[in-house]
Amino acid sequence: MSSGPSTSPSTPPTESAAPPVLARVLALLAIIVAGLCGGLIGYAVMDLQCEDGCATTAGIVGVLSAAGAAFGVAIVAVLALRAMAEWETIQAQEASE
Fold first, then answer.
1. 35 neighbors 69 (Cβ within 8 angstroms)
2. Which DSSP symbol is given to 94?
3. Buried b (16+ CB within 10 A) or exposed e, 41-59
4. 7 Cα distance to chain centroid
5. How far apart are CA 55 and CA 85, in angstroms?
6. Please, which contacts does 38-42 make with residues 24 or more away whose CB atoms are closer than 8 Å?
7. How many CB atoms lie within 10 A of CB 80?
8. Taking a C-beta distance cutoff of 8 angstroms, is the pair 30, 73 a contact?
9. pLDDT tens digits for 8-32?
10. Dihedral, CA atoms, 87, 90, 92, 93, nearest 10 degrees?
11. 6 in helix, strand or coil?
12. What pTM was estimated for this model as a whole?
């Protein structure tokens, strides 16, 4: 038994509809940076608003802000990667005609 799909020399390998690896890595880095920035901003704003040094509350707000920012950028990244894949598909179809 083989672990992968077998390709004979006469059939070309099927192309993946996934975006390039560099685009996926850049999208992941954008999500991470957005999460870090959102967390820092959320923590700083809450820390400034609290007079008694509410480190726990500021930390909770920071984590929630990080999750919200990362989630928002993740949505945009997924949409951009899908659009990129669709664009490449359209270009390949036009080139084959």
1. yes
2. H
3. ebbeebbeeeeeeeeeebe
4. 32
5. 44
6. 38/65, 38/66, 38/67, 38/68, 38/69, 38/70, 39/63, 39/65, 39/66, 39/69, 41/65, 41/69, 42/66
7. 15
8. yes
9. 566 666 666 778 899 999 999 999 9
10. 170
11. coil
12. 0.76
Reading phi first (left if > 0) and then psi (alpha if -120 to 50, else beta), residue 53 is in left
Dihedral sign for Cα atoms in the order 50, 53, 57, 62: positive
Query: DSSP letter string over 18-65?
Result: SPPHHHHHHHHHHHHHHHHHHHHHHHHHHHHH-SS--HHHHHHHHHHH
Predicted pLDDT at 12? 62
Residue located via tokens 């996926």: 24
CA distance linking residue 55 with residue 33, whole number of Å: 23
Nearest-5° Cα angle at 55, 50 to 59:
105
